[in-house]
Design a protein that fits this description.
Length: about 450
């Protein structure tokens, strides 16, 4: 491949992101070719819907519903998979790899569950599978881990990985409205899906954290290995009290390396709503934006911020992957780009730090029965598990209700001890609803 050469691209999945990819390839063709020294040419598009007008020109492009035909077309050098989901997308990707085609995908859910199989097949075939758009939309976080921070032992990756939940939390804080009201508004504005489960229950963030953990620490794990909590149980009072305490609430993905004296490494990975200091960078990420802080032993803390979703930011990441693969091939690279930063043979199962072992302060909200001795019972149940109380506030509702919000901030304690205490309190009759606990992250 030399000056004036063309790399052929095939696109499977012509939805919102696929339309953005077509736009970027057409509108930025000049700067792409100037940076590469050759051209990327869209030669085929496959989608079940061949009738809808996407508002972009496909002049000279074969457009039909034949994905297999696209994969095996000799004019296609790189296959983009933007179908989403699991089974069909996995079949297309493995078929493309078997055909000797390089693959670019934005399918975080698939890779977080079946990445090991896909990357192993790609390595055996000597082709690339890149997925920058799968995490953080247009933010080049994966490329930074794979290239810019490659000389570091990564110490931690902490981030706001889902724009929908960040929008909901920001609006709950700003308007003082309950979760259900703000979620409905997010759906009306297009920030949340009709079925928001993957977002608000933390599953989408867990998919992304699984990929980030693999790239940061060379650890083999799936999103199912990551303890995950969503934001459904949060209420406006939690936002109010957090502000009074000097915190804001964010749904965080947290991954850290724990290295023992003998050199053994254990990995901590978790998703949950978290109180973060107002002075921290992540606390000031609002609306639907994403941000990831990565700490390396040599570089120290670095922050990556930007739009985590959307047609054009995500398309930007997809085309950047196309360019990386094409450039490597033009240079006559000796082998495929390591998709998870580590060579496949260097990836390993690593022991995970259980959520119960995580130690720190926590914020707990009880709906306490308004009767003498109730608060003493809560304090005793916490003390029985070795959980000390740093502060306790009883909020009067002024409405003559049978229960009142009681807010406790604990001294540092292991999570399993706190959870045992809360289970006992919830079963005791001292509270009228399940207790809500938020971990407080000090190291931000």
């Amino acid at each position: 491949m030399g000056e004036g050469s063309v790399v052929g691209v095939g696109l499977i999945g012509f939805g919102t992101i696929g339309t953005g990819v077509v736009k970027v390839l057409a509108e930025n063709a000049d700067v792409i070719s100037e940076r590469l020294g050759f051209s990327l040419k869209l030669v085929r598009v496959a989608d079940l819907d061949t009738e809808t007008d996407r508002g972009v020109s496909l002049d000279g492009v074969v457009f039909d519903s034949n994905a297999s035909g696209l994969i095996h077309d000799p004019a296609v050098d790189i296959v983009i998979e933007l179908v989403g989901g699991y089974d069909i997308a996995k079949r297309f990707i493995l078929e493309a790899i078997s055909a000797g085609k390089h693959v670019v995908t934005a399918n975080k859910a698939l890779l977080a569950l079946h990445g090991k199989e896909i990357f192993k097949a790609a390595d055996a075939q000597g082709v690339d599978v890149l997925f920058e758009a799968a995490v953080g939309g247009g933010i080049p976080i994966l490329r930074s881990l794979r290239e810019g921070l490659a000389a570091n032992h990564i110490q931690s990756v902490v981030g706001i990985l889902n724009g929908t939940t960040n929008f909901v939390l920001t609006e709950m804080e700003r308007c003082g409205e309950p979760f259900e009201v703000v979620l409905k508004r997010a759906q009306e504005l297009g920030y949340a899906e009709a079925d928001p489960t993957f977002d608000v229950d933390g599953i989408d963030a867990a998919h992304k954290l699984a990929l980030l953990t693999g790239m940061a620490f060379g650890a083999e794990l799936t999103f199912e290995d990551i303890p995950t909590e969503g934001i459904r149980n949060l209420a406006p009072i939690d936002m109010e009290i957090a502000g009074e305490l000097g915190f804001r609430i964010k749904l965080l993905g947290i991954a850290r390396a724990h290295r023992g004296a003998g050199g053994e490494e254990r990995i901590e990975a978790r998703i949950h709503p978290t109180m973060v200091p107002i002075s921290s960078m992540l606390a000031n990420v609002d609306a639907a934006m994403n941000a990831v802080e990565v700490r390396g032993d040599a570089v120290g803390p670095t922050l990556y911020y930007g739009a985590g979703a959307g047609e054009m930011p995500t398309a930007s990441a997809v085309v950047a992957d196309l360019m990386e693969i094409a450039r490597e091939k033009q240079r006559g690279g000796a082998g495929p780009v390591s998709p998870l930063s580590y060579r496949p043979e260097a990836l390993a199962q690593k022991s995970l730090v259980s959520l119960g072992e995580v130690r720190g302060r926590s914020y707990v909200r009880f709906s306490a029965v308004d009767r003498p001795g109730c608060l003493a019972g809560i304090a005793a149940a916490l003390a029985e598990e070795g959980v000390g109380i740093e502060s306790l506030v009883q909020r009067s509702t002024g409405a003559g209700l049978a229960d009142v919000p009681v807010i406790v901030v604990t001294h540092p304690a292991e999570d399993h001890a706190l959870r045992r205490a809360l289970a006992n309190i919830d079963a005791s009759g001292a509270v009228t609803a399940t207790s809500v606990a938020l971990r407080i992250e000090e190291e931000l």
